[in-house]
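Anyone opening a protein record will find just a pair of labelled lines. A complete record is shown below as an example.
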Amino acid sequence: MKFLEIERDCPMCGNVSHVALTEKEFEGYMDHYMYNKLIQDAMPDIDPAVCEFVRSERTGYCHDCMESIFGRTSKRIVEGGEGFIDFFDLADYEFASVDEYLALEAEANALWSKNRDNETACIQRRDRITECEVIEASEHFVIVKSSDK
């Protein structure tokens, strides 16, 4: 299973959040977004909170704001701003489930959040690094000293 991400700025608090969609879910999203298909018809099996998040630019509420407004949210809606590992870094992974994807992304985000203020640092997947100065590492990711900074 592969995933694509949709990112939104919360209209209430301004936090950046994103949600990972399967390829099939993303196709449904594009039917809604590009061809004005009703979201409930384009994505009939998706969690209502995720549906609310993706349906328009104006309603991409973050996890906390969605909980306070609607009394429900989804663990698939994840806060993350600059520096979180994006779907290009995970695009060629095959995942068994959404939970597996979210766990790997959380690992990358946790590692990056401790190093985001280091202007010479960048995050990479462990299986893609070459010889470089490693600053910190987790099971799947490393923070390395960037050669172009």
